[in-house]
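Hi C.,

You asked whether I'd gotten around to modeling the 421-residue construct. I have! Everything is below, sequence then structure, no commentary in between.
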Amino acid sequence: MLVLVVASTAATRVAWGAENESITVRWADDANSGVVPNTDPAPVSAALGDASPRAFAQSELWSSKAIAQQGDGEFDLAAESFAKALQIRRIHEGLHHLNHLPLIESLIKVHEQRRDWNGVDRMYRLLTWVHERESSEQQSSVLARYARWHIRAHQLPTEHPPYQHLLNADAALTKAVAIEESQGGGKGEGEDRDNGLVALLYLRATVAYYIADHMTTWSGDAVTGVVPEAIITEDSLDWSDTVLRRNVLFKAFNDGEAALERALSLEQASRDPGAIAIALAFRGDWELLFNRRRAATNYYAQSQRHLIDAGDRAPFNFNLPVALPATAYYRRQRSKAATEPSNFVRVRFDVSPAGKVREWEFIEVQPPEAKHLAGQVRRMLRTMRYRPRLLDGKPTRAEDVEARFVFPATNSVREPQGNIL
């Protein structure tokens, strides 16, 4: 009988395919998790009935006003002004039009600045809907972006439970993969490589992992997101919940495995040893995350042989451990976090051949008075998994590995619940 046990990686919420830089830890700001002002488009004026160019000039005026307000840090007012500009456009151009996209993008940005995650969610849904209704050539890339938002949103205080966000991400990627398959697939070139078929398959495997991880770590109702304190029951063992979690876990494992196998077959067809090495390493990561060490070691050994074939063009190596999942979708956020004010913890540790953290010591905590951050990192280290260092195709212990855990500098900090982005 196959028993799947997900190795929870609470600190490394990123996705298959990026460099292993610093580890970014994100939480929701309690001060901004309550009810926010309603910024849905409101009636602007009687001039909305004017179909002349003057009406579009009004839209431009509202947009200009919003940009000025945004520059002054008046994000609530800017959101209202952008919404009015968009309303005028929708009245005179229809509910969906590609001309609306700049305003929708502006609303996404200003809602991010307001930390109005429900507003961000509404605008991402509108963005995806417009591209779909207008049969945009960028539909698959927009769906991938929509999925990335939902991966992030499942750790934010929105009106939807975490599991629903992950299901939305999976549905968006399923559609994006189908679109790419119908168009012949491929990796894509330049900026499109991030949204090519192979990248979409890696991202779908990432979502499958998050679903499995959520089902094995969430305390409370994993589907509705209800926390234990809100559950009124005298039965401490809910067998229906156990069966549900097990079924979802097995489906997530199979979906992720199928996505990675498909990506591997595409890379093998390309005959690029570097790309094949990456795909094999990701297959090994998948097996290791589910505690299947023998299969993981086999994939890692195959990957290392292809890296030798790649020579100077090898995209990575097994000299140092890599935090799992060895992630790609969060690279933009990690780069952004590196340039923003933040608190961080630097820690040194060893990584065992099984990919587990051993014998850690703290090097630096910033700010020094934030001792509670060291406690959070300590709890994370106990559950983290790393792709182990390989020597001649065999996992070996790596000593004195250093990692930097980055925490956004906010005025409100709360203990992490479940996994952390």
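If it helps when you're writing up: Strands lie at 23-24, 322-323, 342-351, 357-366, 386-387, 389-391, 394-396, 398-408.

Thanks,
B.
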